[in-house]
Amino acid sequence: MPIILCGDWNGSKRGQVYKFLRSQGFVSSYDTAHQYSDSEEDAHKWVSHRNHRGNICGVDFIWLLNPDKCRKPLKTSWNEAVFGIMKYLLLQVASLPEENAFALLKADSSDDRITYSSFCQALCQLGMVHPDRVNSEEMEDLWSEVDHDGNGAVDYKEFQRCIWSPKCYNQEEEDDTEIDVAEGSIVTFEPNDETFGFTVKEAVLFPPEVEKGMWPENYSLSDHAPLTVVFSPVRMPCSPRTPQHP
């Protein structure tokens, strides 16, 4: 069945929450209705919030996930989101360029590689380690992801691949990947298997000025612009899904 998520997501189209939901197959209903892409050019076409500092941004979304969408494994998307937050903290908060960020992560390592202990230490320094944030088990998962060759240390290329320039490497891997499907690992459907989903018929923000990226000074109803979306039911083929094992 389709899934709809609504609300103030406390982040724009450039944020990690947006990227995470997109990686899970969700689409922004408003952007779909107006044929806006994820590009930087379309990131400021509309706004929905004026914050306490007077800045305007688009943070209100009605997300749609149809059952015909294939999704990345949840753990993969979560790791990507955490690495994105790590890069933001290194670049924007600590004001560290790429080489200095790598130096922070490798700490006192003599062979110019990041060790697990220095990786954990850096996460602590960035304020990311907490029972309500990243716990010890999740740190091990993150380390397994960033230590791509599994040799117990992370070199500069692995650092770029997972943390600093993941888009470049992800595209290369998508182009070169051969899919190895183990028996019983994929749920398959017959070609005529169908389910129902939704298409976005209409999506409107109020007041109209916000649809042009402007916030009217005389609008005092709220600091958020209401978003209304009309969906139409539609039949669609089922999507094969990898089962989730406990």
Automatic annotation (TrEMBL):
Natural source organism: Aegilops tauschii subsp. strangulata
InterPro entries: EF-hand-dom_pair, EF_Hand_1_Ca_BS, EF_hand_dom, Endo/exonu/phosph_ase_sf
Cytoplasm found in the keyword field: no
Residue ranges of every copy of the EF-hand domain listed in the record: 134-169
Matching PROSITE patterns: EF_HAND_1 (PS00018), EF_HAND_2 (PS50222)
Recorded GO MF terms: calcium ion binding
Domain of life: Eukaryota
Protein's recorded name: EF-hand domain-containing protein
Signal peptide location: none
Keywords tagged on the record: Calcium
